[in-house]
From TrEMBL:
Protein name: UDP-N-acetylglucosamine transferase subunit ALG13
Superkingdom: Bacteria
Pfam family, one: Glyco_tran_28_C
Keyword Transferase found: yes
Keyword Protease carried by entry: no
Glycosyl transferase family 28 C-terminal domain ranges (all copies): 178-301
Length: 334
């Protein structure tokens, strides 16, 4: 069945993503596959990111949070998805995951709304758990953001880091503004990264440097820092844009914000062995960006002064118009 035959170009597109890196990927990608005049609505969980979209005038639909492997919360999102699609018609549904993608895929099939799932940038060797589940549903349009594992079922149309290049520059004489961001994960802390940064940063930054510590749910007891679990999305982006140095967990959303503002971030992947995430996919993304010269990848334990100097000596550039991300015009394979 042809996508163009069952969609009305005047209808809005429904964009669905879990808060954090998945939502940031969708924010980054959607201008590349929809015209500027296209009407969109967003579905996500309550977050600083969603609030920023609301403040920018977007129509948003807030739904219950689904954490990693949050099967019960996933089922709680089925009814909101059905209600939304029963009350409104959409030209298509597009999701970058994670678990929230599933109830809207099921609702989309029920209401015969074309569905597109774009696998996370972090999945460099194959689909995620969510991607594997969705690949079993017929007539779903599936996209990989890494060409190495694309096939007849998983199309490759580009990735969120297309158009970025790096150049070497002289490091600033003074490092007076630093941003440390650990994302907004609700279950996994990353104290190991903060402890190492507290040892290494003083070897490079000015004594009175302004350091913004956005720490998520990390326990910072006894670390003597002014920590902010959350920072409004626009404020965090402004701080990253003004910073001399950016250090962060290797979350794709955080990394994309840094690249967008011309920063080569220090990326410290969370590790499942330390209880910092459910798996080690962040290491894959960190290595990918490092190989492209767009970031400096290191484990927190191995972070040195030289890594910081390397980050300060790298500037990220982006094409004015990144290549278009072509959505399929026929339904995915069954």
């Amino acid at each position: 069945m042809n996508d163009r035959q069952i969609t009305d170009p005047g209808l809005p597109t429904l964009l669905v993503a879990t808060s954090g890196g998945h939502l940031e990927q969708l924010r980054n990608l959607y201008p590349r596959f929809l015209p500027e005049s296209a009407s969109v609505e967003w579905v996500s969980h309550t977050s600083e990111q969603l609030e920023a979209l609301k403040m920018a005038g977007h129509v948003v639909h807030e739904v219950p949070y689904i954490g990693p492997r949050g099967y019960r919360a996933l089922t709680q999102n089925i009814q909101p998805a059905l209600r939304l699609l029963r009350a409104n018609r959409y030209a298509r549904i597009i999701s970058t995951g994670a678990g929230i993608a599933i109830p809207y895929a099921l609702a989309g099939k029920l209401f015969r709304t074309p569905y597109h799932y774009i696998e996370s940038q972090t999945r460099l060797n194959g689909p995620s758990f969510t991607g594997n589940l969705l690949s079993r549903l017929p007539n779903i349009n599936l996209y990989a953001q890494n060409e190495s594992w694309a096939n007849s079922k998983w199309r490759y149309r580009g990735s969120g880091i297309d158009g970025y290049t790096a150049e070497r520059v002289s490091p600033p004489r003074h490092v007076s503004r630093v941003v440390v961001t650990l994302g907004t994960m609700r279950r996994y802390g990353f104290r190991r990264a903060i402890e190492r940064l507290l040892r290494v940063l003083p070897t490079v930054v000015d004594p009175n440097a302004e350091i913004l510590w956005q720490t998520g749910c990390t326990d910072v007891t006894g670390l003597n820092i002014k920590a902010y679990p959350k920072v409004p999305a626009n404020d965090l982006q402004d701080a990253i844009g003004a910073a001399d140095l950016v250090a962060m967990h290797a979350g794709v959303g955080s990394a994309l914000v840094a690249l967008k503002h011309g920063k080569a971030p220090i990326l410290m992947p969370r590790q499942s062995d330390f209880g910092e995430h459910i798996d080690d996919h962040q290491a894959l993304l960190a290595n990918e960006l490092s190989e492209r010269g767009l970031a400096i990848a290191t484990s927190p334990d191995a972070l040195t002064r030289e890594h910081i100097i390397d980050a300060l000596s790298t500037k990220v550039l982006r094409e004015v118009r990144p290549p278009k991300f072509e959505l399929a015009t026929t339904q995915g394979t069954s």
